């Protein structure tokens, strides 16, 4: 039943974004749950390629929306699912995953390197080794993650014509790198702007110090699916700024989205303001429901010391990536590799082969 069911399911109905015009030169790609696209495509490809057999176990490490997408796809395709997560996973998401039949394993301690991600990968490798024939989607390294975004580029170009700039937050790298690569087949000049946060290693900061309050983007290990040569500009947005921008996106445009959408909106709104003659598209990866007791709750924001009265009007330009904690900064990455910009290889690399 697998492939046919995935083809005509609730997952299909939700997989593509709604195209939302925020201004005449600013478009939002508003996903109910963006990770459905890579989850569905990766599982479909694994079935087609004979890597995943009927009823075979799927195992993955995730503390966020990829797990939810995978749980929906796995349930419909009749595969058991083992997810390795960490204490940052919120209780409602965990309950939803379990309701969909997933086993959710929480690692309690960070690994020797790579924070919780390192510890999660270790458990994942043990589970895969114990279960011959099991399949791991590996969203951080699997090329079918960026590969899954072709329909979005097609949908966007059909709805809006030539796009000048794409802005999106970067976690695994799949969405911005995937959509940009397809859009550039049509519009090679497309600007790609990546949005990261402090203490994420993706664009050259170190993850030392207290963890990241803004989740869903950034990483403590370097995902192989981040193709650094995609990016013209890179921004680092602080948690408080992202939260405030999320609320403004809701108040001004009635778009009820999560904080990675807010971070991307902050950057895209600035770019569109500075470039009125260009058409900018911005990725909104999920909806606001998961964040009603956090980002949408002023008391929670206050308790985190993350409640802002106003947003900075513009970012500070950096002449090189570094560990500075400016509320909002950017660097002209200019489609170079990590090694070209940083003069050293990316480390620590996210290694699952
Ligand atoms: C809510 C949310 N926003 C943004 C991202 C980043 O997207 P990508 O992994 O495609 O870089 C993720 C990744 O998990 C996410 O869960």
Can you describe this structure?
The protein is 38% helix and 15% strand. It is of the alpha/beta class. The chain has 2 domains: 230 residues, Rossmann fold, CATH 3.40.50.1100; 95 residues, Rossmann fold. The strands form 2 sheets. The protein has an 8-stranded mixed beta sheet with strand order 1-2-9-6-7-8-11-10, with helices on both faces. A 3-stranded parallel beta sheet has the order 3-4-5, sandwiched between helices. α3 packs across α4 and α8 packs across α9. The longest helix has 16 residues. Pyridoxal-5'-phosphate binds next to α4 and α9.
Lay out the secondary structure.
Elements: H1 2-7, H2 10-15, E1 18-23, E2 26-30, H3 36-48, E3 58-61, H4 65-77, E4 81-85, H5 91-99, E5 103-106, H6 115-130, H7 144-147, H8 150-160, E6 165-169, H9 174-186, E7 191-196, E8 233-237, H10 239-253, H11 259-274, E9 280-284, H12 298-303, E10 316-317, E11 328-332, H13 338-342
Parallel strand pairs: 2-9, 3-4, 4-5, 6-7, 6-9, 7-8, 10-11
Antiparallel strand pairs: 1-2, 8-11
The chain binds pyridoxal-5'-phosphate.
Features:
11 strands, globular, 3-stranded parallel beta sheet, single chain, 2 domains, binds pyridoxal-5'-phosphate, Rossmann fold, 353 residues, 38% helix, 13 helices, 8-stranded mixed beta sheet, alpha/beta
């Amino acid at each position: 039943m697998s492939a046919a069911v995935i083809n005509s399911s609730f997952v299909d109905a939700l997989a593509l974004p709604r195209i939302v015009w925020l201004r005449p030169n600013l478009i939002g790609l508003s996903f109910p749950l963006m990770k459905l696209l890579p989850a569905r495509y990766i599982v479909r490809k694994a079935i087609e390629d004979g890597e995943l057999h009927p009823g075979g176990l799927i195992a993955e490490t995730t503390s966020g929306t990829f797990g939810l997408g995978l749980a929906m796809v796995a349930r419909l395709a009749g595969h058991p699912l083992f997810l390795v997560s960490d204490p940052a996973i919120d209780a409602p998401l965990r309950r939803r995953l379990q309701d969909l039949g997933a086993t959710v394993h929480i690692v309690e301690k960070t690994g020797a390197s790579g924070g919780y991600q390192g510890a999660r990968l270790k458990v994942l490798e043990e589970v895969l080794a114990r279960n011959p024939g099991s399949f791991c989607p590996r969203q951080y390294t699997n090329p079918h993650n960026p590969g899954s975004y072709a329909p979005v580029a097609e949908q966007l170009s059909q709805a809006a014509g030539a796009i000048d700039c794409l802005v999106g937050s970067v976690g695994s790298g799949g969405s911005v790198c995937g959509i940009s690569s397809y859009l550039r087949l049509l519009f090679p000049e497309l600007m790609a702007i990546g949005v990261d946060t402090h203490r994420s290693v993706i664009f050259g900061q170190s993850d030392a110090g207290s963890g990241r309050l803004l989740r869903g983007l950034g990483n403590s290990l370097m995902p192989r699916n981040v193709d650094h040569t995609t990016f013209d500009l890179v921004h680092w947005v602080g948690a408080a700024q992202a939260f405030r921008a999320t609320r403004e996106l809701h108040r001004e445009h009635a778009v009820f989205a999560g904080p990675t959408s807010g971070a991307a909106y902050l950057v895209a709104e600035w770019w569109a303001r500075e470039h009125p003659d260009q058409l900018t598209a911005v990725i909104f990866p999920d909806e606001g429901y998961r964040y009603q007791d956090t980002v949408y709750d002023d008391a929670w924001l206050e308790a985190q010391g993350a409640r802002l009265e106003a947003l900075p009007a513009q970012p500070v330009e950096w002449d090189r990536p570094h560990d500075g904690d400016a509320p909002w900064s950017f660097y002209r990455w200019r489609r170079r590799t990590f090694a070209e910009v940083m003069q050293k290889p990316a480390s620590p690399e996210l290694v699952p082969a």
